[in-house]
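Project outcomes to date are best conveyed with an example. Our students and postdoctoral researchers have been running inverse folding experiments weekly, and each run begins with a structure described purely in tokens. The record below, which covers 267 residues, was selected by the lab manager from last quarter's runs and is presented without edits.
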């Protein structure tokens, strides 16, 4: 599932291409009420966590959650016939966008949009994010910090990669209870997520390895993985830790794979 930086990249792209223009919206697949926004002014695009919003106003916002299989394809004019199960097609002055396979694609009222935002935790990529709100939940929880970081009602936008990597970077064992995370450590985790995720928005991939551990410095081979990016522990089960050489450990927690270094992140 795409992590928050991907949705913010999409929001920025759609903001540049469509905001301020009257657009055509259709659903070749027939599973989306496109007529509610077709021919209207595209006011802005924004993201909150793993959710994308196309705001038309008044009282009409297209909400998209890509889920595991959703994808956008972006193309310049001329527009061609739909290929495959296109849930939503958006056509602007110079470009057009097709959406396939999302978990959610729906038109919401302003009240429904506000309710959705209220259910989500603070997003490190949003200017209105309140890290205190997330810490209030974490500080009183017996759940592990690994579970809490992936709970979108606690913190929005962090997925499996950012979770594994930020815990490694701060030497936190993933099974530590949230209430054992003190405020100074939480502030460090939050600020690091802001930096890492902003970099992800800029370059379009997740890189978490510090300069002194990069391949060109250490002489190791670059990472070969479909997810791209240089990481410390994510999907590196059994491989040597880039810092201490201990084999990276893995386990399943709450239905998701978990990765950590038993030495650098001692319990």
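After processing, the design step wrote out the following sequence:
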């Amino acid at each position: 599932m795409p992590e928050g930086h991907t949705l913010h990249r999409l929001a920025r792209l759609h903001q540049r291409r469509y905001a301020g223009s009257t657009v055509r919206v259709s659903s070749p697949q027939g599973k989306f009420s496109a007529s509610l926004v077709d021919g209207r002014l595209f006011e802005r695009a924004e993201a909150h966590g793993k959710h994308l919003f196309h705001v038309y106003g008044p009282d009409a916002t297209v909400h998209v959650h890509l889920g595991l299989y959703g994808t956008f394809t972006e193309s310049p004019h001329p527009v061609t016939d739909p290929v495959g199960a296109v849930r939503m097609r958006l056509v602007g002055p110079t470009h057009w966008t097709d959406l396939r396979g999302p978990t959610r694609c729906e038109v919401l009222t302003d009240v429904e949009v506000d309710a959705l935002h209220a259910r989500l935790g603070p997003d490190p990529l949003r200017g209105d994010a309140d890290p205190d709100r997330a810490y209030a939940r974490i500080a009183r929880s017996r759940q592990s910090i690994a579970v809490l970081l992936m709970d979108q009602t606690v913190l929005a936008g962090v997925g499996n990669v950012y979770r594994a990597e930020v815990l490694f970077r701060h030497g936190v064992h993933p099974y530590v209870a949230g209430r054992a995370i003190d405020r100074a450590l939480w502030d460090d985790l939050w600020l690091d997520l802001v930096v890492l995720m902003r970099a992800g928005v800029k370059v379009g991939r997740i890189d978490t390895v510090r300069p002194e551990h990069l391949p060109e410095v250490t002489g190791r081979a670059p990472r070969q993985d479909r997810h791209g990016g240089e990481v410390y522990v994510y999907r590196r089960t059994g491989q040597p830790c880039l810092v201490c050489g201990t084999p990276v450990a893995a386990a399943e927690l709450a239905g998701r794979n978990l990765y950590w270094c038993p030495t650098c992140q001692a319990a």
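The domain at 131-260 is CATH 1.10.8.50 (Helicase, Ruva Protein; domain 3). The mean pLDDT is 97. The training component of this project remains on track.
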